[in-house]
Amino acid sequence: MNRDRSVSLMSLGHACVDVHQGAVAALVPFFVAERAFTYAAASGVVLAASLLSSLVQPLFGALTDRRAMPWLLPLSALTAGAGLALCGVTGSYALTLAAAAVSGVGVAAWHPEAARAARAAARDSHRAMGWFSLGGNVGFALAPPLVTAVVATGGLRATPLLAGPALAGAVLCAAAVRSSGARRPKDRTAEMAGSDDWASFLRLSGAVVCRSVVFVGLSAFVSLYVRERTGGGETAGGAALFVLYAGGAVGTVAGGRLADRYGRLAVVRWSYTLTVAAVAGVVLVPGPAVYLCVALTSAGLYVPFSLHITLGQDFLPRRMGTASGVTLGLAVSVGGLAAPAIGALADATSLRTALLPLVALPAVGRLLLCGLREPVPPGAPVLGGGGSRGAAVR
Known about the structure:
The chain is 78% helix and 0% strand. It is an all-alpha fold.
């Protein structure tokens, strides 16, 4: 089926691109060990990848609202890989930050157009969008073992080898464009139907920001934290980061299936509630049980991941590129802005103390979601009688 082929290509391309996003956080322990960076300095590399990405992602989203930019997918994949390749071979901290920023721009440029193309290929299927999002989660999950295998063997000077997925991603994205490009005019007409609900979209975005700070904070420091708590080495820390990312593979697919059964907003709300308890367990539960808490945190963070994207697109049906740039990009990347603050607090106190505030953020996100109503997807009939507005999406 052509839809399945297009979604599969986009999902694989997503995996290749997000390897580079996940690899920046996975490099943090190596910067600390090999270059003697402080926690704050090492987290600054994560900030560099996130800050410029946060600023430019809505701009790329707005551009894709105006015109089709399919050529941007392979080009941005290559840019993300080139920046990551330079992170370990630069001769100064400033150049390392610049390289991470270039990689972040590549990731930022890719996501808005990719999310729109994937939604068109998925034909409003939550499950298909779940598979698209799964690709990104798989890329994140593969980043820690890939970085460990490459950098632990060859040192930071081996980071050019980490650009390999970018080459594969460029090829896959080009193939996906050829496979699904013919449907673009029809999809564009469907997008323009309906009206934008900015109030609901901004509340959703606020919740995604809360989720983002938790995810980025744990991505940057859970490896070091678990090594402290369990007394293990690099393998123990890398395993924790892998669990955080890999659990998302199950969570993202489950999110699409659960949304088809119970509705998107109900699933998103329960996920945020689970995340509160799970993050508390990561910070407070001692010993190897922390891995179970990391897995539950991963589920709570990832089950709503693809649902955030489609909800945002349906709240802003006339600006799907902008909605994608914010929910998939800006609101996610902005979590990196908190990483230096967490690192500075950890330097001044301890990692445990620095991670404690992350317990409260999913609760704030849950409060922001109260009262939101299910939006009507573009082209879907509005159901009468107070029925579930999202029931038409399958």
